[in-house]
Prior knowledge:
heterodimer; A: mainly alpha; Arc Repressor Mutant, subunit A; 0% strand; B: rod-shaped
Amino acid sequence: MARSDVQLMLEVKAGDEASFELLLRKYRTPLVNFLNRMVRDAATAEDLAQEVFLRVYRARKKYSPSAKFTTWLFRIATNLALNSLRDGRHRQMEVSLDAPPEEDEAPLDLPSRDVRADQMLIERERAERIRRAVLSLPEKQRAAVLLHKYQEMDYAEIGHVLDCSESALKSLLFRAYETLRVELAPLVTPASPAGTTGEGREP
Amino acid sequence: MSCEKIATGLIAYLDGRAGAGERREVESHLAACAACRARAEEFRGVWKALEEIPVVEPSLGFDARIRQRIAAEPRPRPWFWLIPSPRLAFSLSLLVALSAYISSRPPAIPQGAPPTEEGFKMINDLPVLEDYDVLSNFEALSELPQVPAQAPETQDPAQPDEEPVTN
């Protein structure tokens, strides 16, 4: 039977380094992606993710399972990302939607066939535009969208991470998605006819 | 319910986290409002589009770097509980040093201490010492003629040689 994150963390608290290793393997990719989408720069995102794990390790003796482990983990990550952005060290990296892609980005892994290459290029440009739309959101709205969409946290958890009430969070999320809806309108094709109603359960 | 009021509940409705009451309200509004239905579909499109952002993997050295940083963290020592804080440790050290200094000093003689053997001897000789003190400073004694300690070997020139008178 798989141990829960809280159980693993309590074992880390008791001195079990192997349990920390399991948490590291489980959350390194989600954390790096979350931070990469928050601060944009991959190297900074990795540095911040390292700092998150180090802080978790340092806090192991004082850990008490008062909230979900992921809430605690992403609260640390969000605070570090927001502080990093507010420091201004990465502010210059927040580019506008019209700015050209950076030259130092990883080169495309182009296949031999031109058609396939064109298709990949189109997909890549589209993904880049979506990413820029997310990056153009105000920091708190961006964090709310990332936690809602990619971490699939419930409202209470996100509210705890961002230190805001559930109703404030709903308003924050609506404003963020409304901005994205307008920005990405040319790319977004309704999945079904406009007359369709019912729950989506999308994020 | 107006479009503005329904807007904040629309996200919760679409992601399936709305309560039963909120869900009924949104559904009845969407059934009557084409603009909000269109907006709801566009939100679904946005969520689908967000999945197109590629997932990045941490670099190959990520785990090794965090292990290295954790290995460099200071480890608690078994006897560490004996010294709960540096401040307390400093205070204890200071107390020990002060105690050692005080104990190494020679004891001071209290004023009311009993006299030693030498002190008793001095008390016994006290009358003699008092007499000596009086006599050494007695001025009348200085007016007495000085008695030579020894007979002179030469004759006094002021005294003529006289024959002893004999009858």
